[in-house]
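Quiz preparation item.
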């Protein structure tokens, strides 16, 4: 039976995980991140340490090489996710909750997290606490290749930095620490915006882990990252003078509209009488936890449910033999 008492409490499973294996898996995940994102990590750290340095210039061949790296990152992420799903098929039923909500719910939740992260980073920048300079990381020769790279950002990041940490480590370490680890790996990639960029990406990167844990629709993370977060990249190929302004406002309205949509019902739940059925950060409400059936994985590896009470009568009584 699963036991969720908080983000930083390990989910109870039938077999205690081997701590040495857990450390090895964390080290493997970090090593894979350093290997696959080495160029991005070095470039981001260099830019963070030298904020006044000239902006790098990428030729068309450089942009093509970057897209090739993106394809390798995507392939590595999808293969890793598929392998982990196959190897951990039996144990994931104990570590993961039953998938709930719709794709729209998932998109709204993550857009809300991105909007909140942006508001915090911008506020810290205004206060002088953490620099958050939203600028192009490089000058490019081909605008079209730059657009392709921006819109495909979710493909190169979400399988490896959202789905894989959850599937690999859930049940071994608390969800909260998985969020911290994945958020830190994501934040380093955005250090070229300044330390505020690290905090910004850390927050929405950690939120991506929680959103995937709860809803488990990887394609939603990919679409939101590429088509909503990076929609302003399209102004490179739109010739209209107002394109940049329109795309910027579309980005703001979608993200902060989602934040409002996510916050208002929960704010009302907190002030109106009665029990709330909204899910919290722990993944499910107390009422749902009491009513949720137990999960098990049968011999074929498929996740099934069973009654939460041993003596509960079947819904349909057996027909007596004549």
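Solution:
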């Amino acid at each position: 039976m699963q036991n969720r008492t908080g983000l930083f409490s390990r989910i109870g499973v039938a077999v205690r995980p081997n701590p040495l294996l857990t450390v090895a898996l964390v080290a493997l995940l970090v090593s894979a991140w350093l290997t696959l994102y080495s160029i991005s990590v070095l470039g981001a750290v260099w830019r963070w340490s030298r904020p006044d340095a000239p902006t790098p210039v990428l030729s068309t061949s450089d942009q093509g090489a970057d897209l090739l790296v993106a394809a390798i990152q995507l392939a590595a992420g999808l293969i890793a996710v598929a392998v982990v799903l196959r190897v951990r098929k039996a144990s994931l039923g104990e570590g993961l909750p039953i998938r709930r909500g719709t794709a729209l719910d998932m998109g709204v939740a993550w857009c809300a997290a991105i909007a909140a992260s942006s508001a915090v980073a911008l506020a810290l920048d205004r206060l002088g606490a953490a620099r958050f300079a939203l600028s192009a990381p490089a000058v490019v020769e081909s605008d079209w290749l730059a657009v392709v790279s921006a819109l495909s950002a979710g493909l190169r990041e979400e399988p490896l930095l959202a789905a894989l940490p959850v599937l690999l480590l859930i049940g071994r370490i608390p969800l909260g620490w998985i969020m911290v680890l994945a958020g830190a790996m994501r934040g380093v990639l955005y250090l070229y915006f300044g330390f505020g960029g690290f905090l910004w990406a850390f927050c929405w990167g950690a939120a991506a882990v929680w959103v995937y844990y709860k809803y488990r629709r990887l394609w939603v993370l990919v679409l939101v990252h590429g088509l909503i977060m990076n929609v302003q990249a399209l102004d490179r190929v739109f010739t209209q003078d107002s394109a940049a302004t329109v795309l910027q406002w579309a980005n703001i309205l979608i993200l902060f509209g989602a934040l409002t949509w996510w916050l208002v019902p929960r704010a009302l739940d907190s002030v109106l009488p009665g029990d709330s059925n909204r899910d919290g950060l722990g993944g499910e409400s107390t009422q749902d936890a009491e009513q949720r059936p137990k999960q098990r994985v049968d011999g074929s590896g498929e996740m099934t449910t069973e009654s939460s009470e041993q003596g509960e009568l079947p819904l349909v009584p057996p027909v007596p033999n004549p």
